[in-house]
Design goal:
This protein is about 75% helix and about 0% strand. It is mainly α. The chain is elongated.
């Protein structure tokens, strides 16, 4: 992905999280990037595509990196460690994406919602398979519920990160381990 396109996506995500999708114009995004609003159209067809691309891109990245970490780990325990580390880093480094995922879901077009949801479910499955390898007696439904509850914990960081980042990171990692490792 080229640098300008990523800059636009990052800026749009921050503005959408801060002001809401309908509270931000293409001109606002352009101005925040140091370009004219119409210059954005070289990269995106409009705000809707910016929102879709933000959530699709991060969902693809989470799935790709999560899959690599889980499959390259030496044991189920190491895979869980790697997945938790990865997701905690994401949650602490990209709070705007968590906010817009939660708050702006209804503003995604149907195709983007379907694509993002499919990617998210695949990412959840990576975690479920890892948790079940670590805890073989756990049925799939219960493992999925535990993973999704843990995501709720980890993805609460835009609202709960009230301590220094290294301390918050350590706390999240400890809590995720306790909820999933059994």
């Amino acid at each position: 992905m080229n640098g300008r396109r990523q800059q636009i996506l990052d800026t749009a995500a921050e503005l959408f999280a801060e002001r809401g999708f309908h509270g931000v114009s293409v001109h606002d995004i352009g101005a925040a990037c140091g370009i004219s609003g119409p210059a954005l159209y070289k990269h995106f067809s409009g705000k809707g595509e910016l929102l879709s691309a933000s959530l699709t891109d991060i969902s693809e990245t989470l799935l790709k990196e999560g899959s690599v970490r889980a499959t390259s780990a030496e044991s189920p325990s190491a895979a869980l460690d790697a997945l938790i580390d990865w997701h905690v880093d994401f949650a602490l480094d990209h709070p705007a994406l968590i906010v817009i995922q939660d708050r702006e879901w209804a503003n995604l077009n149907a195709a983007a919602r379907r694509d993002v949801r499919a990617l998210q479910l695949s990412y959840i499955d990576v975690w479920v398979d890892t948790v079940r390898a670590l805890r073989p007696g756990l049925d799939r439904s219960t493992a999925r519920a535990a993973v999704q509850a843990t995501f709720g914990l980890l993805n609460s960081t835009p609202h709960s990160a009230r301590i220094k980042p290294p301390e918050m990171r350590a706390l999240l990692i400890e809590m995720a381990h306790r909820s999933l490792a059994g």
